[in-house]
Amino acid sequence: xxxxxxxxxxxxxxxxxxxxxxxxxxxxxxxxxxxxxxxxxxxxxxxxxxx
Length: 51
Description:
mainly alpha; DUF3418 domain-containing protein
C-alpha cells in the first residue's frame, strides 16, 4: 500500500540493498561488501518482512 502512494518501506529498501550486495559477493568478490550477506541472512530478513 505504501508503495502505491509513492512511499518506500525502509525495510524493503534494506532488503533490496542486501540483495544487491549478495550479487556483488557472487560476481565481483574483489569489490567486497560493506557487511556480510548470505542467502540465509536474506531469508531471515524476508521472513521478518512477511510478519
